[in-house]
Amino acid sequence: MQLWPDSGLAGRDPCMAPGGALEVGWRPTVELLGASSWSLASQVCALHQTHTATLSSQDIADNKTQHPCDLLLNESPNSTRLKKLVKMAAKKNKKQKREDYRAAMKQDDVLTMPRKKFYRQRAHANPFSDHQLVYPPHPDQMDWSTLYPAYVAQEESQPEATPSSTTEDLSAPVKVKKLTQDVEVADIGCGFGGLLIALAPVMPQTLVLGLEIRVSVTQFVEDRIKVLRRQNEESKAYQNVSVLRANTMKFLPNFFRQGQLSKIFICFPDPHFKARKHKQRIVSTTLNSEYAYAVRPGGVVYTITDVPDLHGWMVQHFEAHPMFERVGVEEQEGDPCVEIMRNATEEGKKVERNKGEKFVALFRRLEDPVF
C-alpha cells in the first residue's frame, strides 16, 4: 500500500505529509497504521504548524517545542494507532529535535547556553579519513576575522590570498582580513570547550584557539562561545577564544607559522589502546616535530591523561625529541594553567567524579641549535 503513489514518498513516515513542516524521516509505518495514516499525518502537520508558529527561536533553544505526534496524542489520548505512530517516530523525532535546536541556536537573540545532548557525537574520529575540511595553503592566507571579529585590524590595503579548501578553486583570489595580534595558544582536541572557556578570563589579552575534528562537537563550542559573547557584550569577555574544525595531525603547519604559539594543550587525548592504532595517537615522533615547529623557544606543551600507558607514551616521545625537555614538578605545579587543565575540561571533571587519577606532564621547547 502506498500513501502517495505519485509523489515518490511511498513507505515514508506518515508524519511526513507532502508540503508539511515535518522532517521526521523515512519509516515503513504504512502497513502498521493502515488507511487512516494520511488523515493522521494531516492532523499532525496542522497541529505542528499551529504550535511552532507561536514559538520564538529562544523557545526552541529552551527546548519548549513539542513533537507534533505528542501534540496529536494530547488531542486523542485513546488512539491506539496514534500511540504506535508516536513510538515508531521516536528515533527520527530525536534527530529532528537536534536539527531544530541547532537552527534555533544560530539566531542572534538566543542567550541560553547550548545543551550537549543536542550535539552528541561518537568519541572517536579517524584522523586518516578524508574529511571535508577547509584549510589554508599557508598560514598567511588564513582568514581569522570570522573567529575573532573584535580583533580585526582597520581596513588597509589587504594582501590577496587563495581560498583554503579541498574542493574550491585555489586560483581564485580572496582578501584576508588581518588581526591586530596572532593566535598564541592552541587546545588540540578541545572537545566541548571547557578549557577554552576557563582560559579566556585568565588570558584576556591572548588569542586562544580550540581545534576539534568532530563536526557536532565543534558546532557546540561555536554556539557556546557565541552565547557567552552575547551575555558579556559590555565587558567584551570571551572575544579572545574561538574554535575551528581541523585535523591537526595533517594540517597544523597550514594554520600556524614557525614559532607562533606559546602554549599547546593536549588534554585527555584518545588513548588508542590497540597497538595497531598507536599510529593514530596525537603524540608521536613526527607530530612532536610539528609541535616544535609551531611552538616558539621557551613555549610549553601541556599534556594530561587518566591512562597511565598513554602518559608513559607521551613522556617517552617528548623526552626523546631533541627540541623538548620536561618541566620539573615544582615549576609544573606552580603554573596556574595546570590547575585549570586538571579541573576545567569535561573529561577532567568526569575523571574526578569517578575518583580516577590524572597524569600531567609539561614539556618546554628548547632554543634552536646554532649551526
Automatic annotation (TrEMBL):
Q: Which InterPro entries does the entry link to?
A: SAM-dependent_MTases_sf, Trm8_euk, tRNA_(Gua-N-7)_MeTrfase_Trmb
> Which gene name belongs to this protein?
TRM8_2
Query: Any idea which residues are catalytic in this one?
Result: D270
SUPFAM superfamilies, sorted: S-adenosyl-L-methionine-dependent methyltransferases
Q: Which GO terms describe its molecular function?
A: tRNA (guanine(46)-N7)-methyltransferase activity
Quote the subunit structure annotation.
Forms a complex with TRM82.
Name of this protein:
tRNA (guanine-N(7)-)-methyltransferase
- Any idea which UniProt keywords this protein has? Methyltransferase, Nucleus, RNA-binding, S-adenosyl-L-methionine, Transferase, tRNA processing, tRNA-binding
